[in-house]
Amino acid sequence: MDTNTKELVNQGKMLPLMEAFYTIQGEGYHTGKAAYFIRVGGCDVGCHWCDVKESWNAELHPPTSVETIVENAKKYSDTIVITGGEPLMWSMDYLTNLLQKNNMKTHIETSGAYSFSGKWDWFCLSPKKTKLPLDEVYNEADELKMIIHNKSDFDFAEQQAAKVSEKCELFLQPEWSKKEKMTSEIVDYVMKNSKWKISLQTHKYLNIP
C-alpha cells in the first residue's frame, strides 16, 4: 500500500472492502428487512466460530474509495449495514456522513472493541470474551446481540446487559454449529428471563447471503 493510499485509509476515505451485497437482514431486531451489507476487512477479535474468517486479514481486501462504495449502495437500498471483520478498526465518520447525506440509514454490527466513530441510526453491539468492548461503546448500543456457544455464555450475556442503557434491545443468538442444542437452552432461558429475545440466523435457514 503506497503512502497516499495508507493516509486515505487512515482518514476513512478508503476502506478495505471485502464484499458488498443486497440481501435480507437475518439477525436481531431488524430481521426480515431488506438491506445492503458492506463488509469491511480486518479483525483481531478472533472468535473461533467466526463464519467469515477470510475477513480477518485486511491486507487481503483492496482499499476502495468510500465514494465508490456509496454510489454502489445507492442502487439497492436505503438501509445500509456496515459489518466485518470489525468495522470500528477504521474511522466510520466519512462513510456514514456520506451515506446519510444520500438519505440512507446507517446500521453497524460491531464487537465494540475499538473506539466509537460514525453516525448511526442503529448500533448493534455484539461483545466477545476474547476482546471486550470499550466502556465508551455501551451507551451507544440500540441492540445487544449475544452469541451463545455454551452455558457459560448466559452469564457473560448478563454481565454485558448490565452495562448497556435501558433502551437497548437484548437478544440471545445460538452459535450456528451448536444451534440444535443451544436453541432449546435459549428458549428455556428467555421464558425465565423475559427481558431477552431470541435471534436466529434466519438467512442461513433461507439459504441466502
Automatic annotation (TrEMBL):
Q: What is its EC number?
A: 4.3.99.3
Q: Does the keyword Iron apply?
A: yes
Q: What is this protein called?
A: 7-carboxy-7-deazaguanine synthase
Quaternary organization:
Homodimer.
Q: Give the record's cofactor note, including how many are bound.
A: Binds 1 S-adenosyl-L-methionine per subunit. Binds 1 [4Fe-4S] cluster. The cluster is coordinated with 3 cysteines and an exchangeable S-adenosyl-L-methionine.
Residue span(s) of domain Radical SAM core: 30-209
Question: Which GO MF term does the entry hold, naming one?
Answer: S-adenosyl-L-methionine binding
Provide the binding site for substrate: I24, Q25, G26, R39, T83, P209
The EC category is lyase
Please state the pathway this protein functions in, per its UniProt record. Answer: Purine metabolism; 7-cyano-7-deazaguanine biosynthesis
Whose protein is this, by species? Answer: Polaribacter gangjinensis
Q: Which gene encodes it?
A: queE
User: Which cofactors, if any, are listed as required?
Assistant: S-adenosyl-L-methionine; [4Fe-4S] cluster; Mg(2+)
